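Field log, afternoon session.

UNIT: design team B
ACTIVITY: writing a sequence onto a fixed backbone
BACKBONE:
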C-alpha cells in the first residue's frame, strides 16, 4: 500500500498544477484532473501491487469542475476506507487570483457573470471543503520557488508518520497568514524597534533575541505559551492530525515575532517533532509603528 494518499484541491489559480509538478518530482504518483465520481475507485488503485509503497496524489478540479456536494461525500467515503488520506487545500486572496487569471487569460472553471463573481462563487462552494483540509497553504505572497520549497518541506520527508509543525513569524502590518492553525499576537512585548542599536537588526541577531527573550513579560508569556503547546500538540497527535502551523506576529515581523518563532520552534523540536521555521516578513521594509 502507498504511504499516503494526498488530495490536492483549492481555489483555481492558487497553485494546484505547481504542487502536482513538485510532488511528482518527489516521487509521488500524480493523477491529475480526476473527476470526483472516480474517487471511490482510488482504493483499488492504492491496493494494486504496481503502486506498492508509493505515495499517490489526486489533483481535483484543476480544469474539470466538480459537483461540490458530491465531492464532500466521496472524500468522506474515501477517508473511511483509506486512513492515510490527507487533504491539501491551496488558497490565495481574491485580488491575487484575479490578477493571475487576467495574466493567463484562462477561463475560470466556475461560471459567473464576471471573473470576480466566479472567484467569489468558487470560494463559497469550497468553504466546507477547506474546513476538512489537513493542511492549508496560502500562496498569496509566495513565488513559484518559495511555494515549491514549502511543498517539499511538508511532503518530502521520508518519515511520513507523525505530526509536522511549522512555526511562522509575521508582521500584522502585512496581514495574518491565512494557513495558520494557531495565531499568537506578541505586539504587547517590549519592541527592539525603538532601540537605536537594534532597530536595523532582526530577531535572528543575538542582541535582538536577547532583548526580547530576557524581558520579564516575554518570560511569563513563554512559560504560559509552552504550557499551552504541551496540551495542544498531544491533542493534535491524538486526533491523528498531520500538520500544525503556528503563526507568531508582531508589528513588522522583523524583531519580536522572529526571535520568538526561533525559540518556540526550538522548544517543539526538543520534543522530537519535525519543525520548520519560516520568517515571512523579516526582509520587508519598515512598517508604520
Amino acid at each position: 500500500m502507498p504511504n499516503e494518499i494526498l488530495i490536492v484541491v483549492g481555489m483555481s489559480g492558487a497553485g494546484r498544477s505547481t504542487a502536482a509538478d513538485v510532488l511528482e518530482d518527489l516521487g509521488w504518483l500524480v493523477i491529475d484532473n480526476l473527476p470526483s465520481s472516480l474517487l471511490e475507485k482510488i482504493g483499488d488503485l492504492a491496493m494494486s501491487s504496481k503502486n506498492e509503497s508509493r505515495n499517490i496524489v489526486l489533483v481535483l478540479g484543476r480544469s474539470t469542475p466538480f459537483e461540490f456536494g458530491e465531492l464532500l461525500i466521496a472524500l468522506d467515503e474515501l477517508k473511511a476506507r483509506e486512513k492515510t488520506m490527507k487533504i491539501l487545500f491551496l488558497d490565495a486572496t481574491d485580488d491575487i487570483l484575479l490578477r493571475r487569471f487576467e495574466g493567463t487569460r484562462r477561463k475560470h472553471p466556475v461560471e459567473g457573470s464576471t471573473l470576480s463573481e466566479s472567484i467569489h462563487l468558487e470560494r463559497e462552494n469550497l468553504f466546507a471543503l477547506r474546513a476538512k483540509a489537513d493542511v492549508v497553504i496560502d500562496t498569496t505572497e509566495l513565488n513559484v520557488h518559495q511555494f515549491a520549497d514549502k511543498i517539499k518541506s511538508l511532503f518530502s520527508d521520508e518519515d511520513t508518520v507523525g505530526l509536522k509543525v511549522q512555526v511562522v513569524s509575521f508582521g500584522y502590518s502585512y496581514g495574518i497568514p491565512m494557513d495558520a492553525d494557531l495565531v499568537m499576537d506578541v505586539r504587547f512585548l517590549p519592541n527592539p524597534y525603538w532601540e537605536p542599536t537594534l532597530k536595523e537588526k532582526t530577531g535572528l541577531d543575538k542582541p535582538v533575541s536577547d532583548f526580547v527573550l530576557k524581558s520579564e513579560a516575554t518570560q511569563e508569556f513563554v512559560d504560559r505559551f509552552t504550557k499551552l503547546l504541551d496540551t495542544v500538540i498531544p491533542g493534535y497527535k491524538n486526533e491523528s492530525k498531520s500538520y500544525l502551523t503556528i503563526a507568531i506576529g508582531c508589528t513588522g515581523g522583523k524583531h519580536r515575532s522572529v526571535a520568538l518563532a526561533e525559540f518556540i520552534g526550538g522548544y517543539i523540536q526538543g520534543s522530537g517533532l519535525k519543525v520548520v521555521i519560516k520568517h515571512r516578513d523579516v526582509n520587508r521594509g519598515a512598517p508604520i509603528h
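LOG NOTE: The longest helix spans residues 216-238.
NEXT ACTIVITY: expression trials, pending approval
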